[in-house]
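so the lab meeting is tmrw and i was supposed to have these ready like two days ago... anyway. pasting both below. for each one the top line is the aa sequence and the line under it is the structure tokens. i havent really looked at them closely yet so no promises
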Amino acid sequence: METLNYEVLRQSGYAGYILPHAPEKVLQFGEGNFLRAFVDYWFDVANEKTGWNGKCCLVQPIAPGLAAQINAQQGLYTLYLRGRQDGGKVDQKRVISSVSRCLNPYEKADYDAMMAVAVSDDLEYIVSNTTEAGIVYDPACQPGDCPPAPFPAKLTQVLLARWRAGKPGVIILSCELIDNNGKELQKCVSRYIDQWALGEEFRAWVNEQCLFCSTLVDRIVPGRIRDAAEAARLDAENGYHDQLIDVGEIFGVWNIEGPAWLADRLPFKAAGLNCPVVPDVTPYKKRKVRILNGAHTGFVLGAYLAGLDIVRDCMCDDTFRGFMNKMLREEVVPILPLDKQDCLQFAAAVEDRFNNPFVDHELLSISLNSTAKWRARNMPSLLEYVGANGALPPCLAMSFAAYLAFYTSDLQGLTEAGFIARRPAGNTYTISDDRWVLEFYAAHHADEIPALVRAVMTDTRMWGRDLTRVPGFEEATVKNLALIRQKGSRAAFASVL
């Protein structure tokens, strides 16, 4: 079977939208599954819906990458968006044609090609997702490196070339999963301007003519299809071999921090895509962490102890689905500093996203580092609820007791991999967390419930505060943990519904 390219796609009879030729308006650092299922998909839809007529030139952030495979397919790949939407099952296929090529800047010819795109009259946007470790300043980098390793140093070279060519500034959209990603990237560029003595005129152009946007991306992207039989079946259905098949959930939102005019400048609003331009993405990150991520951490540990294994099964269980929805709608959403109807709609979409029939998201994988996760995702909601209402939120309080139950369920011993515990059903599981956390529970797992609860809640290294100072929380946790151990987590979660 022939590998996907424009001619092979034509011969296959594909009837969807395709744009063979267009100017390269986007220079994208990152060629992985997420960007191809999210950013490149959005630009592809913008081409179809608005006639934006642009292509994305991709750049490998590191030496090993996908440039050879992408170029062999002339930038084409098949994207499947799968999940549930408005209660119904969705399985959409689209061949993405917004990618022109992929450059490996660690090869001299491709480095020169990247710099040629940098000074192009067509270039409007620079997009990046170089992982959480990508936005970093490395003082070892020099202006003559071809290329320097860190992305911010590469970006500084690209912007310098553009400025020297007398070209206008660009809009920079950072998608890395760090706080204030755009601002942090701009800080790194500023440090290279200082280190490399690039001058105040260039600095003024960067700061005044270029727009560094912090953004928040939200789409679960499982990525390539790893089941060989399914991949072969899809190739047979499509009539071509695609070595770059990508899979994402149907839900997607891209919050972009910027001035109001940016909403009309970007092609996404006119294309009907979910891309709010907002003055500050911080509240939207809080919404995602508190609702989406907080929902996971809030129910998965109790659900696992009750015998469930994957997230989708929890959404088919009245107790755990009901617990999650009550926690989100009555305890989390009311205290968020955003439009309540918008937050409720986001929370309602969570149930569909977790009920994705195409993704087997294991509860045990979500349990990794639950101490830090509960602190970041659930504790702020609990504390703010208490501050606003003068009472404990029952579901969030129960989620903390479930965390304790999961970490102390018939512990078998500490190994290099983690703490081995036993589920009520009899099988063992591994608790994975920071070593000091595991050693703490090794020292306290045999404590009586009141002593265990006090030891955990007063450990300020875990929580950054003494949780026994939250009125009624210690007493409620003792009661809830006892209920979980005596009657099981299902009965305990049902007790707060």
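ok protien two:
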Amino acid sequence: MISYKNRFHGRNSLRFVYTNGKTYRSTALALRIVDNARTVNYRCAVVVSKKISKSAVKRNRMRRRLYEIIRKNEKHIAAHTDIIVTVYTDQVATMPASELEETVLKLLQQYQQ
């Protein structure tokens, strides 16, 4: 899990990313990223809808896996960056960790180019 300072707090902070962010999409998930000069650290949120999986256990598993990938690779994330990861398939829960990490890093690299 990422630390408290790297998480979003309240829905209004997410609204800024949804209105101003740029989206990078793969088949399983999407990253919406924006530079935010008002923050010191990067912030990240993972969104998994009930449409993806009705089971809270599966949704939380997907969320935990993605948070851990973000935490392990935070050196690739610039400060003053807001990120929202949106999951589009329930395959994220069973996808091999290396493949999931590769997908997230590829999307981050698209943003940095």
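from a quick look at the 2nd one: The two ends are 27 Å apart (CA to CA). The helical segments are 11-20, 56-72, 97-112. will dig more after coffe
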